Amino acid sequence: MAKRQRRQKGTGSVRRKGTGWQSKVEVGERTIYRQWDHEPTAAELLAWCVEQRTANATTTPDAGSFEADVNDYLARVAAMPTIGHVRHHLSLWLDALGRTRRRSTITAAEIDVVMQRWLTTPVAVSVDKRNGRPRSADGVLSLTTIHKRRATLRAMFYRLDGKQAVNPVRGTSLPPILAAAPRGRDYALIARVLDAMPSTRCRRGAPPALARSRAAVMAYTGLPPALIRQIKPTDIDWEAALLRVSARRKGRGVEARVLPLAPQALDALRAFDAANAYGSFSTASFNVCFKRAAARIGVDPTTITVYDLRHSFGEQLYRATRDLQTVGRMLCHSATSRSTARYAAGANDEVNQLAARAFSDAVAQLQASTSDGAATASAPAGATQAPPPAVSPARGDVVAPTRTSPVLGARGRTSSSAATRTSSLVGTGYVPAIRASKGKSRQVKHLRAV
């Protein structure tokens, strides 16, 4: 390898990446990258950096322009966890619709034209340098990507003008996103993939590999990588088998909670703790390590990702509980999240069959009880039936006395004449209503129809 040349100040940085070299330069709040087939010289880096700074120079936009409104919106949502994606989507809308125009002149027809152009224009197919496979199979942007860009623009109009104001994005339309195939995997296959992941590194004296421990925690707790990074030793209650999970800022946000741990999850966390796998890690490298292990056991790495472990947990949990709310709580979803149904989609057929079987059993039991009641009603006249159990009246309840029930008079004494009148009215369809009152005498109020 050629000796790296000394770079002048302001020429950015360069590093080895894949089979080539990658240079980087920061322009304002943006970071621009370029992939080189050879190691660039200091002169080439300087020329490239000057070109990028000139092309991407930031100027103060005119007040009232579309670009000024975008900057205002970005300042209002600067604490959003996905602010980087929002900034990128809005920069694409600025390039497509024009920066200097007023936002009020943007129409729904213009937005539709831009989205249709994005859906039909082929894009450069980038190749993953680590495995040599293309990142895009058909060479065009996915429908999900266009929906996200449209949602970002709609959210900006809502935030700046209010939901009751005129919003041109509401007049646009896109094809619906079809439901993706279930991503859950069988846990026997997951165990084989975990066994194929290395537990040690190739370099002598290097620390142990931690991806295997983290993947096991993800498979048996369902936590995403972002929450696994935040686990601390004090968050685990080994005796009670509980795990405290930090608050999640993604989407609408999820409050911190304490989750129970299955025995398999407790074992995975013990290995996680023994390997000291706490702290931050790269999700991309984590995913590559998982894919390589899947390839070792004969699974196509293009059909599986490390995030499938989370889907597998949700699917298996729904199969066991048949309750989407429980699945959502264990997956750390918000109470109104619609994503939980996608995680449980793989178990829908089995749960539906169990529900149909339970319904059939309930109807059969109801029919059997109805037939038993009809048989009892058609019993001989001399047959006697057991009297219903006596129930003590609660305060404020209306009770009807039977033939043998004494009736209290106005002063709390038993009235024989009232009892006689009551006995004579039982068979006629009318009974006196007696209101039970705590600490007071019960009196006959009026007669009502039964």
Would you kindly provide a written description of the structure presented here, covering whatever features stand out?
- With 450 residues, the chain is mainly α.
- It is built from 15 helices and 9 strands.
- It has helices at 42-55, 66-76, 83-97, 108-120, 143-161, 187-196, 211-221, 225-228, 263-274, 283-296, 308-321, 324-330, 340-343, 348-377, 416-426; strands at residues 13-17, 20-27, 30-36, 236-237, 242-245, 257-260, 398-399, 430-435, 444-449.
- It has a 3-stranded antiparallel beta sheet, with helices on one face. It has a 3-stranded antiparallel beta sheet with strand order 4-5-6, with no helix packed on it.
- A hairpin with a 2-residue loop joins strand 1 and strand 2 (20-27).
- It starts with 12 loop residues before the first strand and ends with a strand.
Estimate what percentage of residues fall within beta strands: 5-15%
The overall pLDDT, averaged over residues, is 79
Query: Sheet bearing the most strands, described?
Result: 3 strands, antiparallel
Domains (count): 4
- Counting helices, strands and paired strands, the structural category is mainly alpha
Which features would summarize this protein structure in a list?
450 residues; mainly alpha; DNA polymerase, domain 1; hpI Integrase, Chain A; 4 domains; 3-stranded antiparallel beta sheet; 42% helix; globular; disordered N terminus; disordered C terminus
Please give a quick description of this structure.
The protein has helices spanning about 40-55, 65-75, 85-95, 110-120, 145-160, 185-195, 210-220, 225-230, 265-275, 285-295, 310-320, 325-330, 340-345, 350-375, 415-425, and strands spanning about 15, 20-25, 30-35, 235, 240-245, 255-260, 400, 430-435, 445-450.
